[in-house]
Amino acid sequence: MSAKYYTQFLLTDADYRGGNEFCGVIELNCPMEQDSERKDIEAILARNFDLRESSVRLVSWSRLH
């Protein structure tokens, strides 16, 4: 069962210096555990943008119902 999350995040890679704040919905194959680290979502976003994990900083996230 998939789960959708609304996220706000910053990309700190040099290519995004001019406009680096983004928001949007990500869909995961299964829901995140309540105690999941922010790093888990940052890693997923980094992979989607083909960036290093350290180039993504999650501002906020919440599960959509």
Helix-strand blueprint:
Layout: E1 3-11, E2 21-28, H1 38-48, E3 56-63
Regions with little confidence, pLDDT below 50 for 5+ residues: none
Question: Could you tell me the number of beta strands?
Answer: 3
CATH class, named Alpha Beta
CATH fold-level label: Ubiquitin-like (UB roll)
Content-based structural category: alpha+beta
CATH architecture: Roll
Backbone CA Rg: 12 Å
Order of helices and strands: EEHE
Count of the separate structural domains: 1
Detailed description of the structure:
By secondary structure, this protein is α+β, with helices and mostly antiparallel strands. The protein has one domain (3-63): Ubiquitin-like (UB roll) (Roll). It is 17% helix and 38% strand. It has one helix spanning 38-48, and strands at residues 3-11, 21-28, 56-63. A three-stranded antiparallel beta sheet has the order 2-1-3. The longest helix is centred in the middle third of the chain and has 11 residues, at 38-48. The radius of gyration is 12 Å and the shape is elongated.
Question: What's a concise summary of this model?
Answer:
The chain has 65 residues and is an alpha+beta fold. It is built from one helix and three strands, in the order ββαβ.
Descriptive key words:
alpha+beta, Ubiquitin-like (UB roll), three-stranded antiparallel beta sheet
